[in-house]
Fold:
Amino acid sequence: MAWRQHDYDEIPGTYVFDGKRSHSGYALNRMAFSFNSEANRQEFAADMDAYCRKYGLSDEQREAVLNGEFLKLLQMGGNIYYLAKIAVFHGMTVQDAGAAFHGITTDEFKQILLNNASGFEERLKQEGGFWHG
Amino acid sequence: MAWRQHDYDEIPGTYVFDGKRSHSGYALNRMAFSFNSEANRQEFAADMDAYCRKYGLSDEQREAVLNGEFLKLLQMGGNIYYLAKIAVFHGMTVQDAGAAFHGITTDEFKQILLNNASGFEERLKQEGGFWHG
Amino acid sequence: MAKIIGGLTTSHIPAIGNAMYSKLEQEPYWKRFFDGYEPVKEWLDEVQPDLAIVVYNDHGLNFFLNQVPTFALGCADSYQNDDEGWGIPASADVKGDAELSWHIAETMIRDEFDITTCQEMKVDHGFMVPMNLFWRDKPTTNWPKAIPLAVNTVQHPLTSAKRCYDLGKSLRKAIDSYPEDMKVVVIGTGGLSHQLQGERAGIIDVDFDLECMDKIINEPSWMTGLSNDYIMEKAGTEGIEVIMWMVMRGALNDKVNVLHKHYHAPISNTGAGVLLLTDAE
Amino acid sequence: MAKIIGGLTTSHIPAIGNAMYSKLEQEPYWKRFFDGYEPVKEWLDEVQPDLAIVVYNDHGLNFFLNQVPTFALGCADSYQNDDEGWGIPASADVKGDAELSWHIAETMIRDEFDITTCQEMKVDHGFMVPMNLFWRDKPTTNWPKAIPLAVNTVQHPLTSAKRCYDLGKSLRKAIDSYPEDMKVVVIGTGGLSHQLQGERAGIIDVDFDLECMDKIINEPSWMTGLSNDYIMEKAGTEGIEVIMWMVMRGALNDKVNVLHKHYHAPISNTGAGVLLLTDAE
Ligand SMILES: [Fe+3]
Ligand SMILES: [Fe+3]
Structure:
């Protein structure tokens, strides 16, 4: 039995976190959830490989965790909010991760964001009505 | 602010387990829930008083737990399914608890059940249609 | 395509589990009760369902009062039984079907049911007693797969008989639209009349139980018209579990064939009813 | 009688929490964003609400994927913030109102919403950032009480903008029928456009954000007509959080007064919108 297809599978560069993904990434996300506790973070930091094995990650997932390969982790069922808890250990913010998904620098990624939003103040004026600021 | 009244409050001898009851019995039921674990049951059996204090029961609740006063526990927010986990320590089944709620013996309680159901086989015949047995 | 081939009902009280565990089936107190399951077991043997959807309530194993979902759907590949506080050894795991579960979840949420999805779920006597009643004569490896659908009947406010019935209709839609060939049975569990708590403990209302069984078969709209207050007044606070039978009923056609019906009382504190229904035209 | 005196919206991303924690409000990157909250804070100072209902989603603090409720309502007397994995010190507890929560739960379940009741609930940045944005200048003891209403926007399948809007209507009914004199604000949080994940990360769609803000004010039926697929395509996978604004909108009259609106982008990866609405006739 194959998992059912969805219209959102057609959105490029996008991994909608549905049952199929959550099912395949369950152990990975479970490990990331454990990082809400400082004691667990210390245990992970002390021996990341062992900690990944303890949580039953696949070999591919474990390697991607150790190497900080976040696009791979996403493709292997990682949820972005849980991956953010792993990114901390690689000194990465969600913006660094965003850049990594594109394979560009964080500064370049931030420039994309600025470009996407550029001219919004003029748009507010066009939009009419009262806007604060 | 008083908790809101409900029509079901009028049903005699009945303690519908709503928000008000659950709120007042939260610590008590939380303790009972912990008895799903054998280690916790042993800790409780070793020092019931201390265990009740650890879970923050009120003095009245603690005393009723120690004395096995199940009607009082019900009135103080105990849920029947959670009270069943406490009843075990007093060697009581739900039928013993049912008898205790009435202040009668378990045999007398079982007789009530038999009386309530008596004649059901004749009723099945009256009811018509095919019934197995 | 998947297909619902039948709807079953049964009580699920722990006393029944104890009786099976202690092999009391032939004792005078239990014999007539257990005999009532034999025709259903024969039917199941014949039709060999691939999967059972078990509608039940948790009594404080998987869900504590910190977080009580109105409807919770198992979305895992297996489900674990565990110690409920009585020290009874846990049964073997039951195999699930995560793909089908997620398909059901998608259908139900699209139909505006606000379910909770559970990728880990311990199943208590409310689930295990029915599975054992219907399949205990077979090795666990020959049991059908199962999906637990837990309805909150413990922490008021509770959902209604009507909402359960409507959820059953959505469940039907989900199964009918699942592309894999599978034979599915839906099991409504719990009830019938009983009240475990308070000075009114010990209620058994044979008339109400038989009326419910008749109406669930022939006139489900009677049942969906009942308020929870009315059901509790008649059938006892724990008798409210009967609303879970309506999920099963909603998953069948408006008209059904009755292949089997059975009633016995008292079993422990409970009136116990068994139904086996299939779609009529 | 209790009364909803206004509806607020805001983004709730952690970066905003970090900026407040590090006192960056006057930095060039942040100043225009934070300035947008000042008129709302003045209004709140004037009207002094007794309680805030905060509609937000949990991002992996209180709920793990083992058990994901579509709608979860806090039913406790206080709520705890906690470590989300970044080692930021937890904020002080926020005071709740269990009686009102259970009244809301009863109303919503009667209205056929299948909510999960939570007598213990940790609240993450999705809840704390909005509370801090609106009340951080006051000592915590002067904050209004709050009730968290968590909507699943993480684990698909998700509920819809329409269902959120309808839930808001039920929330309104609950507040209107609560006998205590209380002034209540409803806060829809999250959004606007952002996508954190994948090769499409970095979406900000100013046009869509402004259209959403306009339609939420003037034509909520436009928003309730949108599919989740459409919203994700336009606003990004995390932009779907905007459906939570519709709970707030449903709790207000069909026609509303706009006391304040503000938009800024980008804030971290996000288009950030602020609304302050009150009932018009
Ligand atoms: Fe039960
Ligand atoms: Fe968020």
About this structure: Chain A is about 60% helix and 0% strand.
